[in-house]
Amino acid sequence: MQLKSVLLIGGSGFLGRHLANQLSRRGVRVVVPTRRRERAQALYPLPTVEVVETDIYAEGSLETLMRGVDAVVNFVGVLHSPAGQPYGRDFARAHVDLPRRIVAAASAAGVTRLVHISALGADANGPSEYQRSKAAGEAAIRESAAGLRWTILRPSVVFGPEDRFLNLFATLASVPVLPLGGAKARFQPVFVGDVSRAILAALEEDRGIGETHELAGPAVYTLAELVRYASRQAGKRTLVLPLPRSLAMLQATVLSWLPGGLMSPDNVRSMDSDNVAKGAPQPFGLVPTALEAVAPAWLGQKTLRGRYPAMRASSDRNP
Predict the structure, then answer these.
(1) Cα dihedral 316, 167, 120, 187 sign
(2) How far is it, in rounded angstroms, from Cα 299 to Cα 170?
(3) What three-state secondary structure class fits 215?
(4) Where are the alpha helices (DSSP H) in the chain?
(5) Could you give the CA distance from residue 216 to residue 279 in angstroms, rounded to a whole number?
(6) Given a cut of 70, is residue 311 above it in pLDDT?
(7) 3-class DSSP state for residue 191?
(8) Is 7 helix (H, G, I), strand (E, B) or coil?
C-alpha cells in the first residue's frame, strides 16, 4: 500500500524508534504518542515524526490519534506485572485491553491496516502470565471486524544498539562470577533491523494479511552462551554459575524488588519453554542477520579497543 501516515503506538521504545527512522527516511509522516515527551527525545530530529503527548489509555485518545493515518503498528508490551490469574493486571491492561481498544478505535476512525507486535512463545496455556496475556492480545486482534487487515508478528528477544538484552550482559561482564537463573533456556535472538524490515514488508507490500508470523535469527543459543558472548565482546571473561530452579526463583524475586525490575519469577517461568521459532525464522522470504555479524559493532565499544575508532573520529586529527 502507498503509505503516507503511520501511527506507532509504543513508538518511543527501542523497536519503535528504529521503525520511525526507517519510515522517516521514506518521507512517511509518523505519529508517536507518549505520556511524557522527554521519553521520545531521540525522535525529535526526524523531520516527518510528530511526537504527541497523550495517554493512550484515556477515553477517545486512540480515535483522535488515528485520524488521517493509513496504518497502525502496536509495539506496546510490558515484562512485569503483579501476579494474577490467568495473568496480572498490568499484563491485562497492556497486552489484552489495549489491543481491544486499538481494534475498536481503528474501526471508529476508518483505519483498516494494523501490524501487531506480539512475542515468540505467546501461548494461551503457556507457563507464564506474560505468555498467556500475549496470546489473549493476539486473540483480540483475530476476533476484530472483517474490515481490519491485520498482521501479527512474533519476534524472539530483539538485539541491537541500545537494546536491554545483550548490552545488559556486556555491562555485567565486569562481574567475575555471575549466578544465572535459566542458564540453559534457549533463545533465537533477532536483529532489530530484521524486525523493522518485516514490519515494512507488511505495511508497504501488504504481506501477511490475516496471518501470524514468527521473527527470529539464524541461530539458537542458551542464555549462558549469550552472556558469555556479550562478556567476551566487552573484553571480559565472566564465569556463569547456573542456578537451580529454586534459587533462580529466589534471585528473580529479589531482582524484581530493585529499581528497574531486572527479572521476576514470571520471567523465569517464561524460560521454561524454548524461545525458538517452530519453522522458518523469517517470513516474506527475508534473510535473518547473524548476531555475530553485527553485535561487535556496538558491544565492542565497551572496550578501549572498540572505542578507539569512535574516539579517533571525534578528534581534531584527520584520519
Answers:
(1) positive
(2) 7
(3) strand
(4) 14-25, 61-65, 89-91, 98-109, 129-142, 166-171, 192-204, 223-233, 245-257, 265-270, 291-294, 296-299, 304-313
(5) 10
(6) no
(7) strand
(8) strand
Q: Which three cell numbers stand for residue 104?
A: 475498536
Name 178's bridge partners. 240
- 105-108, Cβ contacts within 8 angstroms, sequence gap of 24 or more: 105/62, 105/63, 105/65, 105/66, 106/66, 106/72, 106/144, 106/148, 107/144, 107/145, 107/147, 107/148, 108/63, 108/66
Average pLDDT over residues 93-116: 96
Domains of the chain: 5-157+191-215 (3.40.50.720)
| pLDDT > 70? residue 55 | yes
pTM for the whole structure: 0.90
Contact 180, 241 (CB under 8 A): yes
Say if residue 318's pLDDT is above 50: no
pLDDT at 187 over 60: yes
CA distance 199 to 87: 28
| DSSP-derived 3-state class of residue 9 | strand
Element (H, E) at 179: strand 177-180
Contact status, residue 38 vs residue 16, Cβ threshold 8 Å: no
Mean pLDDT of 288-310: 72
Give the pLDDT score at 258: 82
Q: What is the model's pLDDT at position 231? A: 92
When mean pLDDT is compared across 64-68, 234-238, 241-245, the lowest value belongs to 234-238
- Residue that has been written with the C-alpha cell 544465572 in this structure: 180
| Three-state DSSP state, 8 | strand
The three cell numbers locating residue 238: 565472566
Q: Give yes or no for a contact between 135 and 124, defined as CB atoms under 8 angstroms apart.
A: yes
Name the one residue in this structure whose C-alpha cell is 518521507: 27
